[in-house]
Amino acid sequence: MSLLITPFKIGLTGGIGSGKSTVATLFEEYGIKVIDSDAISHQLTQPDGNAIEAIRAEFGETYLSTNGALNRDHMRQLVFSDTTAKQRLESILHPLIRSQMLAQEKASAELSPYLLLAIPLLFETANYLSLVQRTLVVDCTETIQIERTIQRSGLTEPQVRAIMARQIKRSERLRLADDVIQNNTDREALRLQVAHFHRLYIDLSTRSG
What we know:
Blueprint: E1 9-14, H1 20-28, E2 33-36, H2 37-44, H3 52-59, H4 72-81, H5 83-108, E3 115-118, H6 126-129, E4 134-139, H7 142-153, H8 157-166, H9 170-176, E5 179-182, H10 187-208
Parallel strand pairs: 1-3, 1-4, 2-3, 4-5
């Protein structure tokens, strides 16, 4: 009978445009398994994804694209204008995302010395926070957040600011963090910080085991 392995798990989070994906990629270079809630969300809302029927029933065909996937532009506009729509969408997606994260955790437990769970809404959603033993925040100035997001997504500054306003405040995110990576400069500075925390997490995972 095999023993159940419970891996040490770090929750990776940060505001929009902070550089979470870049940090996750740098951890992957050490062979660390990253479980990405955004990637799971995209899978769930692709044509025939597990969330599509519930979204169709809740919001109607208007919010699906012609290929049957979630129409992200239409849904974004609705969520910005109707806070209850955001809650309704999250009530569909969050339980499915959490379930998929747990499944990936189980499948990856023996493949990585610790797991990195990339969750943008880590502090906003208690059901996610309960999945991890430690939290790592990627932080940068709000000016840099806005510049990066505009360059990456093509959103306007008011749209980016609206997204930021719906996220937990930067000061509160930093207060809740166990660890913080500063991402205000270049990739090499980021790499050095990731190396430091990788060593720390190896040590902590060994102790927890």
